[in-house]
Amino acid sequence: MGPKHSKFSISILFIVPLLILASLTVPYFTTIQNGADVYLQSETITEQDATENYVMLRYDVEKVPKERMTPSLVTALKKPDELGQTRVFGVLEQKDGVSELVSLSDKKPAEGVYLMGWLAQTTDREYRQNDHYIVNFGLDRVYVPEFGHRVAADSVQDRTMTAHFKVLDGNSILREFQTN
Predict the structure, then answer these.
(1) I need a labelling partner for 3 at 20 to 30 A (CA). Which of 22, 33, 150, 154 fits?
(2) Is the pTM of this model over 0.90?
(3) Which residues of 157-166 are buried (b: 16+ CB within 10 A; e: fewer)?
């Protein structure tokens, strides 16, 4: 009974972690296989450290004018929350080959292409003072190697970049990006 029991225990020790790892990859591959193609414009942000400059991308859909927020979201943002953040859903619509944010809500859309993210809580005063809010949709940040070391900030500020994502159920996966 001892050797048979130990073989079973050893096999469980190997099979369970493999099943857990496999379950973590299913959403990734499902999004790549079945996700909608979304192209997002971005603005470039140069960051410099001691050895080189980095060009980071901030996507236009992350900068949300408060006019695009639903009234229920504005109410939810002003309520104190333990996390200090509110889960939000940004509905996307394609215009001229690029997806734009149509509305931002605290309610999950029943259909269409949308991104899921987080928005920091606010007060009445902050809401009146701000024209827009920065939403964290969890979109990938990119170090752009084509510009190389010691890139001048002026040389990339006038360039537009378009990132290609696969989006499914609010989750996104970066596929590629182009510099225009």
Answers:
(1) 22
(2) no
(3) eeeebbbebb
